[in-house]
Write a structure and sequence with these properties.
Shape: elongated
Largest sheet: none
Strand content: under 5%
Order of helices and strands: HHHHH
Low-confidence stretches: none
Number of helices: 5
């Protein structure tokens, strides 16, 4: 092997190693971001649902449980005004409240009532499909509407 060929093969090996390292760093960065997003969502979920369960579990009736859950959701998101889109979210969230209420109440839930994990998954799936983002994204980026002031 000539020296030129040998040096050329070393150059190619160095460039291949650099490309492999770059690809690995890109994959590691993407994986780190995905894991951080999953962790963040998991904490948002538990930090939202644990207090909700305490509130809904002590409700006198399923209807009161739904009202408590909807009020809690409004408060957590700063929804002072009701809009059709918000009303739809609150209505779709009601089965989650019912599932939690029945899970914590004595006795059997009504026929056809989903368990709490299934109800939450159904709600999250509905939200993701209709709003094209995660429900938990509201807790990270929600900004209250501010009135327009014209001077």
């Amino acid at each position: 092997m000539s020296l030129a060929t040998y040096l050329s093969s070393l150059q190619q090996a160095a460039e291949a190693a650099e490309a492999a390292e770059r690809a690995f760093r890109t994959e590691a960065e993407a994986r780190t971001k995905a894991l951080a997003a999953a962790r963040s969502e998991a904490y948002r979920r538990i930090n939202f649902l644990r207090p909700l369960a305490e509130m809904v579990g002590g409700a006198e009736s399923p209807d009161v449980a739904v009202l408590h859950a909807q009020a809690y959701l409004r408060t957590r998101l700063g929804w002072d005004e009701t809009t059709p889109a918000r009303e739809e979210v609150l209505t779709r969230f009601a089965p989650v409240a019912l599932a939690i209420h029945f899970a914590l109440a004595e006795g059997e839930p009504p026929e056809g009532t989903e368990d709490a994990p299934a109800a939450m998954a159904t709600f999250e799936d509905w939200y993701a499909q209709t709003r094209e983002s995660s429900f938990w994204y509201l807790f990270e980026h929600y900004m209250r509407e501010t009135p327009l002031v014209d001077f």
